[in-house]
Amino acid sequence: MLHTENLVVRFGGVFALGGVDFTMNEGEVHCLIGPNGAGKSTFFKVVTGQIAPTQGRVSLSGHDITGQSSAQIVRRGIGIKMQTPQLYDDMTVEETIWLGAYRRKGKAGARQRSAELIDELRLGPVARSEVGKLAHGLRQRVEIASVLAGDPALILLDEPAAGMSDADVAFMSELILRLRGRHSFLVVEHDMRFIRSISDRITVFHNGTIFLEGRCDEVLSDQGVKDIYLGKGTHHA
Ligand code: ADP
Ligand code: MG
């Protein structure tokens, strides 16, 4: 579904990505992990159209999307949730989700879809509240709802658990597990408990390349992966 070939990103003399070949399968929850500076955010920015690669190719269900803008990529049926919420603070929760649905479905479908999502994400009690007045965890939930409102086949999430309470993280992982199958998810995350609870597959980035990829349990029990996180490098991995 999502595929990259020899993806290279160079910032001046720094290779943030040094030739990444990545494939993501449909219907899976696929997490990207790796220590700080590994290249996760750069990879996320390339596949979401925020930066163009120096070299290489990104394709989506067989279509070349290399160098397309985020807006063009969203129109292809991809939902993108950046790390900092992209919400209008003075809109209500209901309006925000309705707008997400309206963009994709028009007026007729938007009302029903937003009502369903308010229900599914248990946002009923705050439906009439302004987004800017909500706590962080609820704002994240509203943003997920507005991404889901467009019924994207693939959803790309940058650190959805960052800064959230345990209860909010638990809610988010239950939600992703419930939605898996209806949508595919690519998730960049640090929170290991969260990763463990949602991942089908994990790709570990290190020094701008893929260090290891595999099933969640295989990857998280790998000694080489543990060593990278402890800063022991890759020499004996
Ligand atoms: P991660 O998200 O895994 O922590 P990043 O993708 O942010 O890693 O960074 C990968 C490498 O690229 C790091 O060495 C970082 O310093 C560098 N880098 C990232 N963004 C920029 C930028 N805009 N300009 C220069 N160097 C950058
Ligand atoms: Mg990052």
Helix content: 25-40%
**CATH homologous superfamily designation of the largest domain:** P-loop containing nucleotide triphosphate hydrolases
**C-alpha termini separation:** 30 Å
Q: Could you name the CATH topology of the largest domain?
A: Rossmann fold
Number of strands: 10
Please, what is the average pLDDT? 92
Poorly predicted runs of 5 or more residues: none
Q: Order of strands across the biggest sheet?
A: 6-7-8-3-9-10
Bound molecules: adenosine-5'-diphosphate, magnesium ion
Q: What's the tally of helices?
A: 8
> How many separate domains?
2
From the helix content, strand content and strand pairing, which structural class follows? alpha/beta
Topology:
Layout lengths: L1 E10 L2 E11 L4 E5 L6 H8 L7 E6 L2 E2 L5 H6 L2 E4 L11 H28 L15 H13 L5 E5 L7 H14 L4 E5 L3 H7 L2 E6 L2 E7 H5 L2 H7 L8
The structure holds adenosine-5'-diphosphate and magnesium ion (MG).
Commentary on this structure:
The mean pLDDT is 92. 37% of the residues lie in helices and 26% in strands. The radius of gyration is 18 Å and the shape is globular. The chain contains eight helices and ten strands. With 237 residues, it is an alpha/beta fold. Helix 3 crosses helix 4. It starts with a strand and ends in an 8-residue tail after the last helix. It folds into two domains: 162 residues, Rossmann fold (3-Layer(aba) Sandwich), CATH 3.40.50.300; 66 residues, no CATH class. Bound molecules: adenosine-5'-diphosphate and magnesium ion (MG). The site of adenosine-5'-diphosphate has 12 residues, from strand 2 and helix 1.
